[in-house]
């Protein structure tokens, strides 16, 4: 059900942004992993930086997968071939999920390597924490991606897809920051998806993160599923 030509085209259009943001994360983890232990790096890095970088990626890429192609008219050419809308939706969703997964894999690998060879060595506990943290980044990014993909499928114009999808993701990132300024605003962070990814809880060894990860994964995949169904059935200005 995946179109290889379309997948190759999508990779060509998005690989540079993916590479730059992945390298930024890898370099930061290489530096932090070399100078700080896993717990310190977990608190200093994973609490904010990777989700901001992932949000930038999914906002831009999510829009380009569907809405931007409808907006520019390039999707008309794609659908003039034997490729069905269902195949387009599945292919684009496959790219989004896969690219976010490999971004997290590279980040995890970099952190593991830095801890093992540039720091005091990698214990079994360190290994588990790093894997869990990067799994958390992936499912959080997936939730953001599902929201942006859904918006991209709903709207035919890029400006609306970015405004809605990017707006929701942006607010989710902004609320925890606002809550830091005063105890009166502390409750705001509970309305953010970021609240479901709590690095200190993971580092402490608690298993409370599991339910939160499941919720984030469900949000992401449901956004993709609903968005795909809308795209397949809606009228397009082709």
Approximate strand percentage: under 5%
- What coarse outline follows from CA principal-axis ratios? globular
Number of strand elements: 0
Derived from helix and strand composition plus strand pairing, the structural class reads mainly alpha
Tell me the helix content.
Answer: over 70%
* Element string (H = helix, E = strand): HHHHHHHHHH
Largest beta-sheet details = none
CA radius of gyration: 19 Å
How far apart the termini lie comes to 22 Å
Total number of helices: 10
- Overall average residue pLDDT: 93
Q: Which stretches are poorly predicted, pLDDT < 50 over at least 5 residues?
A: none
Itemize the secondary structure elements and their pairings.
Elements: H1 4-35, H2 38-44, H3 49-65, H4 67-72, H5 74-79, H6 85-118, H7 124-154, H8 158-179, H9 199-204, H10 209-233
How does this structure look, described?
With 238 residues, the protein is an all-alpha fold. The protein has 10 helices and no strands. Helix 3 packs antiparallel against helix 6. The longest helix has 34 residues. The two termini are 22 Å apart.
């Amino acid at each position: 059900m995946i179109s290889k030509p379309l997948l190759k085209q999508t990779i060509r259009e998005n690989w540079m942004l993916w590479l730059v943001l992945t390298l930024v994360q890898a370099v930061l983890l290489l530096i932090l992993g070399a100078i700080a232990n896993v717990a310190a790096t977990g608190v200093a890095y994973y609490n904010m930086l990777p989700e901001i970088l992932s949000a930038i990626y999914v906002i831009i890429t999510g829009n380009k997968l569907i809405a931007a192609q409808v907006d520019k008219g390039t999707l008309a050419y794609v659908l003039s071939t034997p490729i069905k809308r269902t195949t387009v939706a599945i292919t684009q969703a496959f790219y989004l999920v896969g690219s976010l997964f490999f971004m997290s894999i590279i980040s995890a690998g970099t952190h593991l390597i830095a801890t093992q060879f540039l720091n005091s060595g990698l214990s079994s506990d360190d290994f588990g924490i790093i894997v869990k943290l990067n799994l958390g980044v992936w499912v959080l990014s997936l939730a953001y991606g599902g929201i942006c993909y859904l918006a991209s499928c709903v709207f035919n114009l890029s400006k609306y897809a970015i405004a809605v999808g990017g707006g929701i993701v942006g607010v989710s990132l902004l609320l925890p920051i606002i809550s830091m300024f005063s105890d009166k605003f502390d409750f705001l962070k509970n309305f953010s998806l970021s609240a479901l990814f709590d690095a200190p809880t993971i580092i402490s060894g608690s298993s409370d993160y599991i339910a939160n990860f499941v919720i984030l994964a469900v949000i992401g995949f449901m956004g993709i599923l609903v968005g795909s169904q809308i795209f397949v059935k809606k009228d397009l200005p082709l």
